[in-house]
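pinned: reference chain
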Amino acid sequence: MRSGLIFGMVLGWLCLVTQADAFEISKLKNTKEAVTHSFSKSREAEALARGGKDAEAQFSALAASLNRLEAEKGLNCDFEIFDSFVSELKKMQLPYDHESLSDAFVVWRSRGWIDDLFYEAMVEISESRSRLMHFQSRRVWRREQAEVDQLRSMGDGSAQLALKSIYLGFQGSSPSAPGCTKERYVRHPEISRISNLLAYQSGWIQSEVLDLLEGLSLIGVREWEISIASYLKVLIQVKDRSKGIDPGASDLGPNEFSSSFRYRNSNLTYRETLYSQFDAIQIIMMSDLLKKSFERMDATRADLVFTRGDQSEVIPLSPMGQYYFARKLLKKSIDDLNRSSLFAGSPFSYEDVVTAALETGLIQSNLISEVLKIDDLWSPAVSSWSKLSRFLLQVSGSANVLVPPPYNLISALALVVVEGVVARRINQGNGNLGTGDSTYDPF
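pinned: its structure tokens
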């Protein structure tokens, strides 16, 4: 029954995703990340001084190239997207050398026309494109040749024929015209230095294709966290799709949460993690979990019902009891989805749900600050972490503590998130790996 329900929900989400509007350049505007981790202030000043005058025209060229490419082929391949952009710059007689583009990307990010994710993806593809143009395959070592000879001596078995079929698909590509080679290369992890040499020496590919494939290996395209094509695809389908559902979400300005690093020693922010680990359907599903929790928290009444035959006993819940059960149901929904095949290999947490809701525009960003504002009514002079801990202990304990009016959905959400963080810290300190749920009287 549950699997059928989830399948029906996925079909609904899939229909919504496939009906996404055409690409709009305004989608690239930075409305999520409060700070940039991509470059220093000195680099920003340098770029503004050198490339500020052409930045707006170059950005117009980007918009024109994206619209044209989407209409002709779709935004499916990183190098096609970048080469289309360079072609438009040439047409408009604007600078397109690597240094000029590097400055332009910084200026775009500085002015909020793009975010960190798009900036870093453009820098990565620009640098890679430049390296590919000057790359030549290295010499073949004796050990490598011996491995190639051994493979060739095995004859045209099924494995050889399958490999040949893969390489024939690269014909016509070159470092000067890579097209969608990168995407095809990433889909085939069996491609290696030895298989490249085998394909070349067997006549399946020409020298320029060999140079391209070897170049892709050198620049490590398989390790890229986010590609331009995948980023644009998810961005179009997800960003601000739920804007306006919650009355508190009218101001969707940049926030510190999305641009915060996920872990202390990580170089990935919460938003980068969202785009690198989840597709559009998964992000929408996570955001919808929170939407449902909002509806439960905002219900005018919540009851616990005991049914015995044709008789029912209805026990009304207190406002905090309503929050408590909404929180428990949110956790249950997260656990259910994490166990499903829909998120196999990519489990998510409370923080991922919050990041997804921020991305879809369901909620504003100032979750933690809202909790602090509420707790200021009790202890305005206490440090932030102490306030959070004390307030959450009050809420989770047996005392009948109510959130003061007006009861705020955003504040309730923040309690869900921060309570989870507090519980994890307490459990880790005690060596306890439990759920962190406290006993609580919901009546």
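why pinned: The two ends are 32 Å apart (CA to CA). DSSP finds 18 helices and two strands in the chain.
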